[in-house]
Amino acid sequence: MLHDVLLAFLFTLFAGLATGIGSLLAFFAKTTNTKFLSFALGFSAGVMIYVSMIDIFAKAQEALVGAMGEEPGNWLTVGGFFGGILLIALIDRFIPKRSNPHELKKVEDMNKNGTKIKDPDLLKMGTFTALAIGIHNFPEGIATFMSTLQDPALGVAIALAVAIHNIPEGIAVSVPIYYATNDRRKAFRLSFLSGIAEPVGAVVGFLILMPFLNDVMFGIVFAAVAGIMVFISLDELLPAAKKYDEAHVSIYGLIGGMAVMALSLLLFI
Q: Residue 167 pLDDT more than 70?
């Protein structure tokens, strides 16, 4: 059991700290590879949508129907799914638009107009963006952790998908902070710390949920995880992928993510 918990925590830590990768890309790349980001974000959405609807929802339904019977089990599965969507939608709703982590930035913005200026408003925006990403990452951490705990092979796929979608969020934090302060270390530090919310979410999920984890609790949590990941895919990943998009690359990524996930479910899970 301890081994499973540690593995789940490590996967969640990896996913969360991918914001730091975005930050490093912003510092060391001269231009944004929009094709790569568009494909990667589409791929991540494909993985999340497919695994949520085909595997996670089905496992939640199986657990709840087995524990509570056909009708109440099905109703509770659907309720848990939309409850997860409502949770992440409320988090989204109460984050100010100006610090929304879905506002895309590019590496080129680091040296906009060839100058760097100290701007308190930009610093404030970057700091709030880091906070907003941290809030978003909290339920994502629970999703990654619980999925890995239930099935490590499934956890690998989800951790990778979450990590990919955290990369542009790292850029979104780093660009305004660096542009405001001329301090690469400060920009990287805040970007890095925003990702820590993911393993924190995992720890909180473990401490709060594990003592009550039975078939019913597992089913509800897993159904909510499916809802959270579908919402993230439709509200964050696909719109971001389309903004970076060139020649339908994001759709190719989406289909590719679904195909890879389908193949892994058939062969390994």
A: yes
Q: Two tokens at 258? A: 């679904």
Q: Which two tokens stand for residue 63?
A: 């657990």
Classify the phi-psi angles of 118: left when phi > 0, otherwise alpha if psi is within -120 to 50, otherwise beta: beta
What is d(CA 76, CA 80) in angstroms, rounded to the nearest whole number? Answer: 6
DSSP 102: T
Q: How far is CA 187 from CA 19, 109, 177, 179, in A?
A: 11, 14, 5, 9
* Average pLDDT of the residues in 172-179: 73
Q: Name residues whose C-beta falls within 8 Å of residue 71's C-beta, 6 or more positions apart in sequence.
A: none
- Tell me how far apart the alpha carbons of residues 16 and 112 are, in angstroms, rounded to a whole number: 28
Across the range 12-39, mean pLDDT stands at: 75
List the alpha helices (DSSP H) in the chain. Answer: 2-16, 18-28, 34-50, 57-68, 70-93, 120-150, 152-181, 184-209, 215-232, 238-243, 249-267
pLDDT band at 171 (very low <50, low <70, confident <90, very high): confident
pTM: 0.72
- Range in 72-76, 112-116, 204-208, 256-260 with the lowest mean pLDDT: 112-116
User: What is the distance between the alpha carbons of residues 170 and 190, in angstroms, rounded to a whole number?
Assistant: 9
Compare 102 and 126 and report the one with higher pLDDT: 126
The token duo for 81 is: 């799914």
Sign of CA dihedral 219, 166, 204, 261: positive
Instruction: Tell me how far apart the alpha carbons of residues 227 and 49 are, in angstroms, rounded to a whole number.
Output: 9
